Amino acid sequence: MKYFLFTFLFFSVCDFLEANERPxxxxxxxxxxxxxxxxxxxxxxxxxxNIDKLAKQGLTLSQFYANSTVCSPSRASFIxxxxxxxxxxxxxxxxHPSINWGYLDPKSQTVADQLKNYGYQTALIxxxxxxxxxxxxxxxxxxxxxxxxxxxxxDDYWTHLRDGVNWMRFNDKxxxxxxxxxxxxxxxxxxYITESTKSAQPFFLFLSYNAPHFPIQPPEKYLNRVxxxxxxxxxxxxxxxxxxxxxxxxxxxxxxQITSLDLDKNTLIxxxxxxxxxxxxxxxxxxxxxxxxDMYEGGIRxxxxxxxxxxxxxxxxxxxxxxxxxxxxxxxxxxxGQIPSNIDGVSLLSTLLTPEEKTxxxxxFWVRKEGWDHNGLSYYAARSGDxxxxxxxxxxxFEFYNLFADPYEKTPLAEKSVKAFSQxxxxxxxxxxxxxxxxxxREPIKNTLKQN
Length: 452
What we know:
single chain; alpha/beta; Alkaline Phosphatase, subunit A; Arylsulfatase, C-terminal domain; 2 domains; ten-stranded mixed sheet; four-stranded antiparallel sheet; 11 helices; disordered N terminus
């Protein structure tokens, strides 16, 4: 029976690929978008019709994970196909060396490098957050076209500065942009998609929004609309709802441009987030425990939808587990390329085509290194099957859960009673050993920036 199922799936995928031309690939990544902050995910106070439509027209991956509970590590995993610590980014990359916890491994190829080798136009619009200087600038890491923000968070969505520094760039040139950052990135994405049609090459576009990362700054008309509609919301929650609805409108404009250019049928679209929502800003991760900064599900499980008209059936849902690092090999698999052997991600193509199929059994790991209260130490999580180890600060003992029996991580298991506990601890130990040879900081350089 297993042989028949494997044979059927193998030939189904091969038949699919033979009939398929190389698709355009669009990855839309939100920043700190909570698992429960979309109406498609059950939110009652948020209306996100455009992202909802994307979900309805394709596949919802209900157990899809960011590779970390903060920005830079997850983004490093997406573009390299590796765990963050194996990509040199166990923590957040920042402009001040004393609080910087990552340096993207210059030796790691990126998904943009690979797709470029297979004839794709490659572009990044929006947030980069993986390096502020050579050799880790977007144009040096496989992106032909970069129009966006090199830094981490913006201190203001209208001025686009971080600690007084302007990190907005058009390729390698500093630029000054006017308007709300979400609108600016949307405009640039629409322009790029339009321009890309002049070439016979397919495009790979990574549209990387800063929103809804704090500071929570929705345009006034969006906030007024939400406050009028949802009079019982706190000011903090109303601002977050308005911020997400503004983002949804931006996504809608991009999707509409794809439709207007008749690109729907040959464009694979992925919508996801780099980590969970920040609870202190009234962001919601639904019933999941914890939020940004935590290794509980609310910090790492992210809303993820895949649309590919004519290839992926509508209104599909899968519980198969995936991670951001899996997108790299998935894209290479789709175009029948050679998946690099030195990456950690696995192709999810079989899941996209046949959602009921199980992904390969594997143990997954999460890491974050941080300063401040964490004193430069790392903390971790690991999952194998339904079992999960969780540590949400470096000083917290590991907790152990069965996610099938306890999906909201309410009652830790007695560790010694389950063999899987010691197995996960040992696998995590070996992962830490394997990642230890990758440097995560460059040689100290003179810092001319004002320290906070």
